[in-house]
Write a structure and sequence with these properties.
The chain has about 250 residues and is mainly alpha-helical. Helix content is about 55%, strand content about 5%. β3 and β4 form a beta hairpin.
Amino acid sequence: MKAHTKHRLLKILLTGAALLVLFSPLYMYFSHDVEALNRWYPHNISSSGEPLYELKPGKPKGWVRINEISKSAKGAIVISEDWAFYQHQGIDVNQLKTAVQEILTFERFRGASTITQQMVKNVFLSSDRTISRKIHELILTHKVEQVLAKDKILEVYLNCIEFGPDIYGIREASYHYFKKHPSALTPRESAFLAMLLPSPKGYYISFKNKKLTPFATKRIKTILTKMRMGKVIGPERFNSEVSRKFFWEK
């Protein structure tokens, strides 16, 4: 291949790469109409396995509004998953810096995800652990925070998040574990649901065996302590909840 032909080919490749870098973020930004969540609801259109959501009019079966969920449940999950949810703009900068450093040093690829980021991933994206998916998530997270109220973001999140094997949404979880509506969840029950979220299929073992693992026991107490610190519950309620057993515990 002649030198000028090689030079021309290299120029074309560099131009293509530059255009890709320029237009990929634009594509990601306009890839989903996130504002539609103000009018429509995410409906699971998957017949099995991981949910696949499509925005449609009308509430899905089992959907609960944010004001129909107990204060304890909302407090436990926000405190354990994203303490600064109502203060930040969708991205926890400190966690993101740590995650980027770990990616660049090939240590691991952790989520470092806020509630908004998790909602975006669950409703609009896949669970692929790739850098491009993470960038897409961050771009859509910024967009979501501009057009949706915090309570709306939390409502969508709580109705789509996984709480155990094929258990999606806080209403299904509340009835599955405690046979009650989310509005009636106690602080300890709320802390249990919050405990499940980092690994719902793995931590399901406590319910499966009808006995809390040492990790679950410690984690529930930690969440209740944070709820007391955050004034979601008072000292007296903390004392009465911290050692109480669930009806299904042996």
